[in-house]
Amino acid sequence: SLTPQAWYIAVYGEEAWKELGKWSRVVWQDYLIWYRKVLDLPVRNRTEVTGLAPEGEMVRVSGHDVDTGEKLSWLARKVVLSTGM
């Protein structure tokens, strides 16, 4: 029930889903915001990743806040690199 299709049908209806070709960037962003809120996911914008390094069975992600320069570091089981369309 958290799939993009289920969300789209709930918001716009079954007919709109059947007629959908490509999602607009705005609608896709609306889905991602909803998904983030529903799952209470910590999302950090304006962050630049500067390194990935194995750490045991995890991956150490290092970077910094673009606005403040604050250094950041996380451990992750998986990392998805997404640079746009």
Question: In summary, what is this structure?
Answer:
Helix content is 35%, strand content 27%. The chain contains three helices and three strands.
Instruction: Output the number of helix runs.
Output: 3
| C-alpha termini separation | 25 Å
The percent range for strand residues is 25-35%
Number of DSSP strands?
Answer: 3
Helix-residue proportion: 25-40%
Largest sheet: 3 strands, antiparallel
* Class computed from helices, strands and strand pairing: alpha+beta
What does this entry look like structurally?
The protein is of the alpha+beta class and 85 residues long. The chain is 35% helix and 27% strand. The chain contains 3 helices and 3 strands; from the N terminus they run αααβββ. The protein has helices at 4-12, 14-19, 25-39, and strands at residues 47-55, 58-65, 71-76. It has a 3-stranded antiparallel sheet with strand order 1-2-3, with no helix packed on it. A hairpin with a 5-residue loop joins strand 2 and strand 3 (71-76). The protein starts with a helix and ends in a 9-residue tail after the last strand. The model has no long low-confidence stretch (mean pLDDT 93).
